[in-house]
Structures are given as structure tokens and as C-alpha cells.
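Whiteboard transcription, Tuesday session. T.W. wrote the C-alpha cells on the left side:
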């Protein structure tokens, strides 16, 4: 099987099955293995002096191991089947929409349940979120992680094969764990955050375009173009702004991380701020429509080449 054929099959497998919990209760998920390695390096190297250098060296070592693992797996007997399963596991469409959909169902039950549910997918303090804050957080997470968890892995797998996908997942996992602007990670996580920004630059913008095209809403493009740069992240603003414009809602805005309040501006500030579970459901449907567009593009690549 070619890289494109494996990717198409993996996208379908992920969309239909996702990540069954019964499997990962018995064995470690590849992302968990990557996270475990990052945690070990964090505990042993994240200390003065030269935290920035140590963090960069740690990331470089992990990236090298990911590349070696990718090349090694690709050379295994019957590597196509192993590679297909691994690519499917490292795509996150099914699990992403499932977790975000659970927030909508919990929000229908009550705020406490919704806060517990949204805490599984966002880094901000859920206790400080009201009904609208929970819905905004779920929609933001959905848009950002469609880029990080679906479009970017597809992009890097198409570009560099399995080594590229494993390198991307390593960098992205490192960014999520240590790439924070906190006292502990400002230096040690600097390299992870910067490399992740570079690797997500094009996929994030392409994700925004996919969401805009799937929505067929001119306002989605205008909002993406005008408001993406207002986001604290150089990349997350693109899919989030496209999603906000497509849904006609305001997202982002002030929030609390680690007990510290931020004064982030609203994206699509003129949009509706009174959000409901139905708005989350609309975002989920739009994400599936965007996935169909991505699948169609990969299919077109297969047909041409």
C-alpha cells in the first residue's frame, strides 16, 4: 500500500472506530508512551542552570527517537498493516468529536456535570466557567484540536511518512505538556512551543479554510482573516475564528489558567454570546463536514498521483 492509500484507510478506520477504551486499558497508547518519556525528562532535566538548552536537547533527542522508530516500523515485515493501525491510532477525529459531544450532553444535564466533562479537553479552570463559558471552551477545543489532532497529522504523514507523523506527535505532545508560559516551563518548554508553532503554521491555516468551505459562510472567512491574529496562539486563532464566524458566535475572551485571569479579546466579538448545547452540536457537525473535505482532498491526491 502507498502512503496515501494507508492514510485513506486510516482516516476511515479512525472515523468509524476511534480509540476503543478496552484496548488502551490493556496496553499503553502511543501518545501516552511519548508523554511518559517527556515526563521523565521534565523531572530530571528541568532545573537550573541552562533550562532552555536542556529543554531543546530533550526535544531533539525525542524527535530523533521518533524518526528512528518511524523508519524502523516502516521496514518491518507486513509493515503496511502495522503502519495503518498506528496512523489510525494517531488520528483523533472520532475521539475529538465524541468528547466534545459529551460536553453538550452534560450541559443539558447541568453545569456541574458540564464542568467535569469540559475539564477533560481544556486546560483552563473549569470551576470558573458558567454555562456559556463551558460551551465556548468546548467549541474552541474542537476547532483547535481539529487542526492539531487531525489536519496536522494528515499533513505531516503525507509529507514525510510515518517518521513525519511520529515527529509531529512528539512535538505536539511536548508542547501540550511543557510548552506553557509559566515559571516552571517558560525556559524548559521554549523549544517545544516554538517548534510546535512552526509545524502547525500551515495546517492551522488550512484547517480554517476547510471549516470556512464546509460552512459555505462568507462571514467565516472574514472572521478568520480579521480575527485570527487576535488569538494568543499564532495558529489556533485560524480554525477558531473560522468556526466562530461560521456559527455566528463569539468565543475565546477572558479566561482563567492556573488561577491567573487573562484579558484575551473575543473572537468574532459581534457574535452571539449566549451559547447552548445546540451550538456545540452544530460545531461537531461542521467538524465532520470539514473532515469530509479533508478526506476528499486526500482522495484527489491519490487519484492524481
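and on the right, the sequence the group agreed on:
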Amino acid at each position: 500500500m502507498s502512503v496515501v492509500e494507508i492514510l485513506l484507510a486510516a482516516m476511515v478506520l479512525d472515523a468509524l472506530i476511534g480509540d476503543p477504551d478496552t484496548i488502551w486499558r490493556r496496553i499503553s497508547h502511543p501518545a501516552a508512551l511519548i508523554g511518559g518519556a517527556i515526563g521523565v525528562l521534565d523531572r530530571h532535566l528541568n532545573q537550573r542552570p541552562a533550562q532552555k538548552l536542556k529543554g531543546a536537547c530533550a526535544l531533539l533527542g525525542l524527535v530523533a527517537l521518533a524518526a528512528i522508530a518511524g523508519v524502523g516500523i516502516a521496514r518491518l515485515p507486513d509493515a503496511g498493516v502495522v503502519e495503518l493501525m498506528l496512523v489510525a491510532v494517531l488520528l483523533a477525529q472520532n475521539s475529538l468529536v465524541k468528547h466534545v459531544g459529551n460536553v453538550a450532553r452534560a450541559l443539558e444535564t447541568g453545569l456541574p456535570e458540564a464542568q467535569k466533562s469540559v475539564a477533560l479537553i481544556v486546560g483552563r479552570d473549569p470551576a470558573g466557567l458558567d454555562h456559556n463559558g463551558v460551551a465556548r471552551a468546548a467549541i474552541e477545543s474542537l476547532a483547535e484540536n481539529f487542526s492539531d489532532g487531525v489536519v496536522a497529522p494528515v499533513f505531516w504523514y503525507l509529507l514525510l511518512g510515518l517518521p513525519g507523523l511520529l515527529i509531529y506527535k512528539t512535538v505536539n505532545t511536548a508542547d501540550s505538556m511543557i510548552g506553557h508560559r509559566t515559571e516552571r516551563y517558560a525556559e524548559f518548554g521554549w523549544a517545544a512551543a516554538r517548534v510546535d508553532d512552526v509545524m502547525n503554521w500551515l495546517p492551522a491555516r488550512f484547517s480554517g479554510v476547510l471549516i470556512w468551505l464546509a460552512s459555505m459562510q462568507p462571514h467565516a472567512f472574514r472572521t478568520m482573516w480579521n480575527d485570527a491574529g487576535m488569538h494568543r496562539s499564532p495558529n489556533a486563532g485560524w480554525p477558531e475564528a473560522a468556526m466562530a464566524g461560521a456559527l455566528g458566535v463569539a468565543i475565546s475572551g477572558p479566561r482563567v489558567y492556573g488561577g491567573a485571569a487573562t484579558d484575551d479579546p473575543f473572537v468574532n466579538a459581534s457574535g452571539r454570546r449566549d451559547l447552548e448545547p445546540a451550538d456545540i452540536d452544530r460545531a461537531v457537525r461542521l467538524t465532520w463536514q470539514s473532515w469530509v473535505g479533508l478526506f476528499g482532498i486526500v482522495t484527489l491526491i491519490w487519484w492524481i498521483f
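Someone added at the bottom: The longest strand covers residues 251-252.
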